[in-house]
UniProtKB/TrEMBL annotation:
It catalyses: 5,6-dihydrouracil + H2O = 3-(carbamoylamino)propanoate + H(+). GO terms for cellular component: cytosol. This is dihydropyrimidinase. Belongs to the metallo-dependent hydrolases superfamily. Hydantoinase/dihydropyrimidinase family. The modification N6-carboxylysine is found at residue 192.
C-alpha cells in the first residue's frame, strides 16, 4: 500500500517515449521532489536473494538486504517481513552500480550545448547500470566559484548521485586561491589541466608545475588532458592546407605520438614535484606505455581508458557518410585498430586502473556545424549508458577479466581514488544501496532507436554482446527493471569528495627522504 502510493509520484519513462521533449517536459514542468518527499530511499526495503555478490575483493553467493537507502546486511538466508520487495537473483551477478569518472553533461561546446543534461544523461546511465558519475565543472570566465554555481544549477534535476571535478582553464593567483576553497568548502578533490587546445584552455609547463604544486599541497588529484597542443594546431593547419577538411582530417592531424609526448611530459613533471597524477582518456598504446613505464618505476600515475578507446577503432572517421564519420570525432581521437586491444590488455593487467566514458553527447545537427571543416565539428561521443555492458562483454565475457576485477575497474577503484570508498564502490553493510543485477546469459543490443540518451546517433550502433543489466537500484530505489526507467528529478545527491585520498598516503615521508638524501648544501670553508 505504502509502496504503491510512493510509486505514483515517480516519473515513468519508457524506452520509446524518452526523447528530448518527453524528458525536458518533466524538468520544465518543475516536477521536483525534496529528499524526504521522493520517499523511496527512506522507505523501500529490498531483499536480493541467491545472487553472486561481487565486490572487488571477493565474490560470494549471498542475500543482500537494503533499508533506508543503504545496504543493511550481506549474508546467507536473510529472513524478512512481507513489506519487503524481494528480487530473485539466482544465477545472476549482484554488483556495485557503476561509477563513471569522466562525463560532460549539459556542457557548452563551441557554440552549442550537449544534448544530454544532468537529468537525461543520468537517466540513460541508470538504464545502463551506472549509478554515479563525476562531471567536470567548467569555470565561467576563469572563475571557479562562478563555474561551480552554474553547475550546481545544471545538476538540480539530478536523478542519481554525482560529484564534480574542476577544470582549470587559465592560471593566476585568484584561481590558485579558489582551488583551496573548492577543496576545503565544496567537496572537490581533483583538478584537470589541458596540455591541448592552444589559444583556449592550454597552459604551458611553467603553469602546469604551479598547478601540480598547488594540487599536492591541497591533497587534490591533478588530472591532465595529454596532447601536445602546439603540434595539434600545426597538424590541423597542415591538413587544411592539403585540402583534407573532412572528419578523417581530425584523425590525421593529431597522431598518437602527440598524445604520448604530452603524457610522458606530464608524467615527468608530476614526478619532478612528486605529485600523484591522473591521465584522463588514454586513447593510444603509445600513451599507455608511458604510464606503464612510470608505474614500473614506482610513480603514482593513474591511467583512465574510456569505452570508445577500448572497443572502437578509427575506421568510422573514414566513413564516406559525413554524419556517420562526424559522430566519432573526439579528442584525443579514436585510434587505428590494434590500440583498442592493447588498451584492453593493459586494463586486464592493471597497467590502467579504471574505465570512464568522456560522455559528451552531440547530435547530428550539431556535428554538422563542421561539415566543411573538421576543426568545427564539436568533439564528443556517447557512452554513459553503454559502458557497463561493453566493458563486461569486452573484458569478462571474452575471458580477459574476472567479475571482481570488472567491479574494480567500473566502480571500486574510482571510489577509492576519489576517496568515497566504501560508501560507494562496494556492497558492504553501510554502503549506499547502489546496486545492479546483471544476467550473464542475457544479451544486449545497442541502437539509437532504443537508447535513452538524447542524441539521434550512437557510436556503438549495432553492437551486441552477452551480459545484461536487468535491475538498477540507486540510493535504495529500483530505478530500472523490466526495461523500464522510473526516475525522480531532484533525487540525486551531490557527493562531497574529501582530499588526501590513498594516492597521497606516505608522500610526506617520501618527500622527507628526498630532502635528507640531498646531502646539500655542501659545507665549504670560508676563504
Ligand atoms: C546462466 O548460465 C549458467 C551456466 O549455464 C547457469 O549456471 C546459470 O544459472 C544461468 N543463469 C541464469 C540467470 O539463467
Ligand atoms: C570576463 O572577464 C572580462 C575581464 O576579465 C570581462 O571584461 C568580461 O565582461 C567577462 N565576461 C563575462 C561573461 O563575465
Ligand atoms: C574496426 O571497427 C569496425 C567497426 O566497429 C569493425 O567492423 C572492424 O572489425 C574493426 N577492425 C579491426 C581490425 O578490428
Ligand atoms: C539536435 O539538438 C538541437 C539542440 O537541442 C536541436 O535543435 C536539433 O533539432 C537536434 N537535431 C536532431 C537531429 O535531433
Ligand atoms: C555554430 O557555429 C557553426 C559554424 O561553426 C554554425 O554553422 C552554426 O549555425 C552555429 N550554431 C549556432 C546555434 O549559432
Ligand atoms: Zn572529457
Amino acid at each position: 500500500m505504502v509502496i504503491r502510493l510512493l510509486l505514483s509520484v515517480i516519473v515513468y519513462i519508457s524506452a520509446s517515449a524518452l526523447g528530448t521533449s518527453a524528458t525536458n517536459q518533466f524538468c520544465e514542468a518543475g516536477i521536483k521532489y525534496e529528499e524526504s518527499g521522493c520517499g523511496l530511499s527512506s522507505s523501500s526495503k529490498i531483499l536480493i536473494t541467491g545472487g553472486t555478490v561481487v565486490n572487488a575483493h571477493q565474490q560470494v553467493i549471498a542475500d543482500v538486504y537494503i533499508e533506508e537507502g543503504v545496504v543493511a546486511a550481506v549474508k546467507s538466508n536473510i529472513k524478512v517481513d512481507d513489506d519487503v520487495i524481494v528480487l530473485d537473483a539466482t544465477g545472476k551477478f549482484v554488483m556495485p552500480g557503476g561509477i563513471d569518472p569522466h562525463t560532460h553533461l549539459g556542457m557548452d561546446v563551441l557554440n552549442t550545448t550537449t544534448v544530454d543534461d544532468f537529468f537525461t544523461g543520468q537517466a540513460a546511465a541508470l538504464a545502463g547500470g551506472t549509478t554515479m558519475h563525476i562531471d567536470f565543472v567548467i569555470p565561467v570566465n576563469g572563475s571557479l566559484s562562478a563555474g561551480l554555481k552554474a553547475y550546481q544549477k545544471k545538476a538540480e534535476d539530478s536523478c542519481m548521485d554525482y560529484g564534480f571535478h574542476m577544470v582549470i582553464t587559465k592560471w593566476n593567483e585568484d584561481v590558485s586561491r579558489e582551488m583551496e576553497i573548492m577543496v576545503k568548502e565544496n567537496g572537490i578533490n581533483s583538478f584537470k589541466f589541458f596540455m591541448a587546445y592552444k589559444g583556449a584552455l592550454m597552459i604551458n609547463d611553467e603553469l602546469l608545475l604551479e598547478g601540480f604544486k598547488k594540487c599536492k599541497s591541497l591533497g587534490a588529484l591533478a588530472m591532465i588532458h595529454a596532447e601536445n597542443g602546439d603540434a595539434v594546431f600545426e597538424g590541423q593547419k597542415r591538413m587544411i592546407e592539403l585540402g583534407i577538411t573532412g572528419p578523417e582530417g581530425h584523425d590525421l592531424s593529431r597522431p598518437a605520438v602527440l598524445e604520448a609526448e604530452a603524457t610522458g611530459r606530464g608524467i615527468r613533471l608530476a614526478s619532478f614535484s612528486n605529485t600523484p597524477l591522473y591521465v584522463v582518456h588514454v586513447m593510444s598504446r603509445d600513451a599507455m606505455e608511458e604510464i606503464a613505464k612510470a608505474r614500473r618505476s614506482g610513480q603514482r600515475v593513474i591511467g583512465e581508458p574510456i569505452v570508445s578507446g577500448l572497443v572502437l577503432n578509427n575506421s568510422g572517421l573514414w566513413d564516406p557518410d559525413f554524419t556517420t564519420a562526424a559522430k566519432f570525432v573526439m579528442s584525443p581521437p579514436i585510434r587505428a585498430a590494434g590500440h583498442d586491444k592493447a588498451l584492453q590488455a593493459a586494463l586486464s593487467a592493471g597497467v590502467l586502473q579504471l574505465v570512464g566514458t568522456d560522455h559528451c553527447s552531440l547530435n547530428s545537427t550539431q556535428k554538422a556545424f563542421g561539415i566543411n571543416d573538421f576543426r568545427k565539428i564539436p568533439n564528443g561521443v556517447n557512452g554513459i549508458e553503454e559502458r557497463m555492458h561493453l566493458v563486461w562483454d569486452a573484458m569478462v565475457e571474452s575471458g580477459q577479466m574476472s567479475p571482481s576485477d570488472y567491479v574494480r575497474v567500473t566502480s571500486t577503484e574510482c571510489a577509492r581514488i576519489f576517496n568515497i570508498y566504501p560508501k560507494k564502490g562496494a556492497i558492504l553493510a553501510g554502503s549506499d544501496a547502489d546496486i545492479i543485477i546483471l544476467n550473464p546469459n542475457s544479451s544486449f543490443k545497442i541502437t539509437a532507436k532504443s537508447h535513452h540518451t538524447n542524441s539521434d546517433t550512437n557510436v556503438y550502433e549495432g553492437f551486441t554482446g552477452k551480459g545484461k543489466v536487468e535491475v538498477t537500484i540507486a540510493g535504495g530505489r529500483i530505478v530500472w527493471a523490466n526495461g523500464e526507467l522510473k526516475v525522480v528529478p531532484g533525487s540525486g545527491k551531490y557527493i562531497r569528495m574529501p582530499p588526501f585520498g590513498y594516492l597521497f598516503d606516505g608522500l610526506d615521508r617520501a618527500d622527507a627522504n628526498y630532502l635528507s638524501s640531498l646531502r646539500a648544501p655542501v659545507k665549504r670553508f670560508k676563504s
